[in-house]
Amino acid sequence: MEECKKNMEKESFNIFNQISKNNTQLIRLKKACERAKKRLSSLSQTKIHIGNYTFTIEPAEFIKYCDELFIRLNNVFDDFITKAKIDKNKIDEVILIGGSTLIPKIREIIKEKFDKSKVKFELDPKEVVARGAAIRGAKFVNISSVSNIKLFDVTNLPLGVRKKGNIFAIILPRSTQIPKYKTETFETVENNQTKALIEVYEGEAIENCDKKNLLLGKFEISGFPKRKAGKVKIEIKMYIKSSLLLEITAWQKDNESNNEKLVIEKLNDFSKILYQLEERQNRISFIKNNNYNNIKFSIINLEEELTKQKGKKSKRL
Questions:
Q1: Is the whole-model pTM more than 0.70?
Q2: Residues linked to residue 221 through DSSP beta bridges, in sequence order
Q3: Cα–Cα distance between 140 and 146 in angstroms, integer?
Q4: 11 or 163: whose pLDDT is higher?
Q5: Hey, how many other C-beta atoms are within 10 angstroms of the C-beta on 312?
Q6: Which of 124, 199, 252, 300 is the 20 to 30 Å CA partner of 145?
Q7: Which residue intervals of the chain are DSSP H helices?
Q8: How many CA atoms lie within 13 A of 11 on its CB side?
């Protein structure tokens, strides 16, 4: 989409100016780019039409524009193999999930990373998602025909707490198999500190975690004895249950009766709900801005029309 806008700016600044300032047109441009991306999986050329502007794109150009993303994808594969602690040669099958795996360049990268004979290219990536959902539903209602299939939930992103200096301390790493619990020890950072605020985050940013990661919840534990910084130890336990219920418990290490707990229901759903709310707010913002622009242009058109009418009357007189 950014490359399309750059090309548009070069070829026709007037069209670029009209589209870049109109949120409705920008949404249409984004959708047109997405359609073009899908068509390039099977065509040698396609066109993006938006208003009076037409942009022709070929697979080679698409690969060039997305080169940085493809490099990052390579890194994702390497990171996955390393963190999973598995031998790549011991993987039995590689199943492609989601529409993006239909992109030829992505399939080419997968062939280079894994044994081609183990990659199930013949399966429809969209159908795989539906099958997985059906199996998951069958497991929930205990249908016997899927009793021999094992499904494992994992954490989508690292979970942890914020430390002094907005540093993210990870307790449960990304892709931790659920259910799972883990305890980490922390300490006071000030002299005579009698309480601590526990802020629970989900994300991958280590620095500035309060701005870059998602805050899931917070609670306070108090009643610490007045001692020098670092002398009071605080244990924090994170426990994700099979129901995706996340429990965070904090207590003073030498006084377990002094403890506090936070429970976050449906961890993954919670993240999705927040994302959906953000998307909805963005759409509302687009609508508001677009309505403002429409009203503005209507007033301008009305003023022009009135000016023309006044001009006609003057000529008659």
A1: no
A2: 196
A3: 10
A4: 163
A5: 8
A6: 124
A7: 2-11, 13-20, 23-39, 59-65, 67-84, 104-113, 125-140, 209-212, 267-316
A8: 12
